[in-house]
Write a structure and sequence with these properties.
The protein has 139 residues and is α+β, with helices and mostly antiparallel strands. It folds into two domains: 34 residues; 97 residues, K homology (KH) domain (GMP Synthetase, Chain A, domain 3), CATH 3.30.300. 32% of the residues lie in helices and 29% in strands. The strands form two sheets. The chain has a three-stranded antiparallel sheet with strand order 1-2-3, with no helix packed on it. Strands 4-5-6 form a three-stranded mixed sheet.
């Protein structure tokens, strides 16, 4: 059976919204001019979802591959197009993987599998524009 999502978003004040998902509440707000910058904006939350989605894939795959890693950080850089609707142009992701004597082939395989097969958020965003990635090893 397909996964069902039930999200409720409620306007609070100014440009602040409460996004209710299961038993969680995530606030969103706009930058000054429109909002007070009291919470991440919707587009930042989309990028956070991308990082979390691929991160969960990579951690799960590295554990299955028995890669002894101690940390994973994902940094994303992008900018918006000039025309409305303003969307991300190219999304650049950097995976920073920490650990001693990492099996780089397995790390690269895990990231590639996430990118090519498992991460639904990247699959959706790739339809709009390119996503590139690089890997940095620490330790």
């Amino acid at each position: 059976m397909a996964k069902h999502f039930d999200i409720k978003t409620v306007w609070k004040e100014g440009m602040v919204f409460e996004n209710h998902m299961r038993n969680h509440v995530v606030l969103s707000d706009a930058l000054p001019e429109l909002g007070q910058d009291s919470a991440p904006g919707p587009k930042e939350l989309v990028l956070s979802g991308l990082a979390s989605c691929t991160g969960m894939d990579v951690v799960s795959l590295l554990r299955k591959m028995r890669v002894d890693f101690t940390g994973l950080e994902i940094r994303i850089e992008t900018q918006l197009t000039e025309e409305h609707p303003k969307v991300f142009d190219e999304i650049n992701m950097k995976y920073i993987v920490s650990g001693k004597d990492l099996d780089k082939a397995k790390v690269e395989k895990a990231i590639t599998l996430s990118y090519d097969k498992y991460c639904g958020v990247s699959a959706m965003l790739k339809k709009n524009g390119p996503i590139t990635y690089s890997i940095e090893y620490v330790g």
